[in-house]
Design a protein that fits this description.
The chain is of the alpha/beta class and 299 residues long. 50% of the residues lie in helices and 12% in strands. The chain has two domains: 2-31 and 127-298, Rossmann fold; 34-119, Haloacid dehalogenase-like hydrolase (DNA polymerase, domain 1, Orthogonal Bundle). The chain has a seven-stranded mixed sheet, sandwiched between helices. Strands 3-4 form a two-stranded antiparallel sheet. α2 packs across α3 (53-70) and α3 (53-70) packs across α5 (83-97). The longest helix is centred in the first third of the chain and has 18 residues, at 53-70. The chain is elongated and about 65 Å long.
């Protein structure tokens, strides 16, 4: 089902046909098979630790919040050497905060850390989002069939790309981050570019990167301004504040994938000129087709 909120037909963004679709990763294209703290608990048990799952849940949430504040963007601009160091610290703090014996944790920590990091770089930790794998795969396949560039633009480091490859997504979208390495639109990761959603600079850089490989031989796309390229780009995500508000304020069109019937306050909705709401990724194909039909009517 597609719902269009606050549509103002005749504005530049609503009249421009969608040519590029950017996807959030987490709970949009891929989702954890079980909650991350439970996966941490499973690996801890395998390593010989006795775990309380409820305490692990609280510890994971606390450690994630603390590290995100102390070392934002996986420590890109702080003293950490990179994402792996950030996640390693998260694993250690989660285990210790959950009340496990420090000496026992330190004894198994190197192996435990490797096992958790390997797990979250693969299909062992993630599945394709939606009611079935077909929701994601058919959506990407259908967009490609109507000559729409699709790409990943998400708050993450490169581990998510490994998981997406393991789930078979590289057959449908470019999971390389180097612009020009593939004729398809390059993936955009917050760690690489130094900005994260909902910062407008994240979305603008994602648009720039996507359009740098979009129809290189097309004179029509090369003549568009940056604002026009953003207006012809649809961002799809599940987090209303980060994905929908962020993308819309940066000049993109936005589609909120709301599989769980989540609600947002009316004021937040009214603050945006327009956005789509869908309950399946398969609806995105119709959103794109509809944007082209509407554009032709307005012209």
């Amino acid at each position: 089902m597609i719902v269009r909120h606050g549509a103002q037909l005749g504005t530049a963004s609503s009249a421009r046909p969608i040519q590029v679709v950017l996807f959030d990763a987490f709970d949009t294209l891929v989702s954890p098979r079980i909650a991350p703290h439970l996966q941490y608990a499973e690996e801890a048990v395998k390593a010989g630790l006795q775990v309380d799952e409820q305490r692990m849940a609280s510890a994971f949430k606390q450690a994630f919040k603390t590290l995100s504040a102390e070392h934002p963007l996986y420590g890109k601009h702080t003293s950490l050497s990179g994402p792996r160091a950030w996640w390693s610290l998260l694993i250690k703090q989660t285990m210790l905060t959950s009340g496990l014996d420090p000496s026992s944790v330190n004894r198994v920590l190197p192996r435990l850390t490797t096992n958790i990091l390997d797990r979250f770089s693969s299909r062992e930790a993630y599945r394709l989002s939606g009611t079935s794998d077909a929701e994601v795969l058919e959506t990407l396949k259908s967009l490609r069939a109507i000559s729409v560039q699709s790409s990943l633009a998400t708050n993450s480091d490169s581990a998510i790309l490994l998981a997406c490859r393991d789930l078979g997504l590289s057959a449908y979208i470019n999971l390389n981050t180097d612009v020009g390495e593939d004729e398809r639109a390059a993936a955009t990761l917050s760690y690489d570019i130094g900005y994260e959603k909902p910062d407008a600079r994240f979305f603008k850089e994602a648009v720039r990167r996507a359009w740098s490989t979009h129809r290189r031989d097309s004179s029509s796309s090369s003549s568009l301004t940056e604002e026009e390229k953003a207006a012809a780009t649809l961002y799809v995500g599940d987090d209303f504040a980060q994905d929908i508000v962020g993308a819309t304020q940066a000049g993109l069109q936005a589609a909120w994938i709301n599989r769980g019937n989540k609600t947002v306050d009316t004021a937040s909705q009214r603050s945006l000129p327009s956005f789509y709401q869908v309950d399946s990724l398969l609806d995105i194909v119709d959103v794109v087709r509809g944007s082209r039909h509407t554009s032709q009517q307005i012209e």
